[in-house]
Amino acid sequence: MTVTDDLGREIQIPFPPQRIISAVPSTTEFLFDLELDDKVISRTRFCRYPENKIERLPNIGGTKNLHADKIKLLNPDLILANEEENNKAQIEALMELYPVYVSKVRNFEDALSNILKTGKITNSEPKAFEIANKIREEFSKLPKRDQKIKVLYLIWKNPYMCVAKDTFINSMLEMCGFENIIEESDERYPILNEEQIKDLNPELVLLSSEPFPFSDVNKAEFQKILPNAKIELVDGEMFSWYESHLQKASKYFSSLINKIQL
Fold first, then answer.
1. Which domains does the chain have, with CATH numbers?
2. Which residue, 22, 78, 144, 199, shows the most beta carbons closer than 10 Å to its own?
3. Helix, strand, coil percentages in the chain from 3-state DSSP, rounded to 5
């Protein structure tokens, strides 16, 4: 089967693939949701779901530190990677040896498209369509806001790092009726200092649980920096996992939207 990935590369994939490696935690969960349990042959160090099934799988390392020797022993006929989640040099090296399909997801529509494309190349189209349709339907029910709230979404501390417009997280913020206060940036994940954060003066600050695990201590710190802003700890998986995990995100976002009243 010849397919074109999101980098525009043509790839020859044995169809249907029988030995699939996912280099992205959200994709690993998605493959199980596609009922491909017997085709998934590994997990990364950061894969979490489904908990009762991934424990039996060999660990091939972190998303940006994959163990090529372990991958060689597993002999995959398809590797699923992501242009942002994985290390470019490592993925390019794997491309020389295996069929590697690389996704690029920047917004909600990209996410739904990726679900369908992954379903197609894994011979799981009916289930993929079912998941995509459910996600679209549930997101259409999100509460609507009359006025958008200006938000700063932080993903890292020391230094403070936030998300800009050209990110999947930004797309999720927009779906929730929030307006990213980072309007112009050459970087997709700009670094800010405390004074810049004060100058931005957001109405709402969302502190993500990943990749940096912000806590109540950090929430109190930010309340001192921005005494007039509302500070919330949020589940980073809901904002950044772009496949079947979105089935859980819509309910989470509904609760968050109703909780934040400014």
1. 2-105 (3.40.50.1980), 149-259 (3.40.50.1980)
2. 22
3. 40, 20, 40
